[in-house]
Predict the structure.
Amino acid sequence: MEFILGVMTSIVATFLVAYFISTLTVKYQKLIIATVKKPNLYISIFRDTDEKNIALVIQKIFTSWNTKNVEDYIACWSDDAVKIISSNTDKKFTKAAIKGKFIVSCETYSSISTEYLVFNDIRVNYPEMGLAIVDVNYRFLLISKESSLPVIEDTNELYVLENDGKNWKIKANHDHFVAFSPRNPDLG
């Protein structure tokens, strides 16, 4: 009898959890999953830590993207920063090119918004070098000035940040996590 009661309780609990998760938006589902996977990361983001300061830089990138603020956006990048577009090409953008592409993006889209930004991981693996690796997942919505059809994309990006002694700045950005080894980031 106890066995049957236990099985029934387990089934009911499974259905309740499935129902609860299905009522949440994708944003909250991803945030809950990321928090369960890395609870210490989300605790450290709320405290005065390197992880919090790094998260603030990444959040500033997306906030400036949403508001189309070129100065705030480019201030997050180090002077020798590179942006690598894909692992299938050797093409890299310098800070000046990053700024130019951002301006073109702002002119192309009448509306840019980030639906959610979730930190999958922040690793300050190289404290002696002042380097950190950040893996984020986000969904953005772009509405072109020429068309009212939105572009919605859910994507992961990898950022390598460098601490210059007082501030964290983005040293490299890549939209495919697999192109970098977490133990030996290729900074270009």
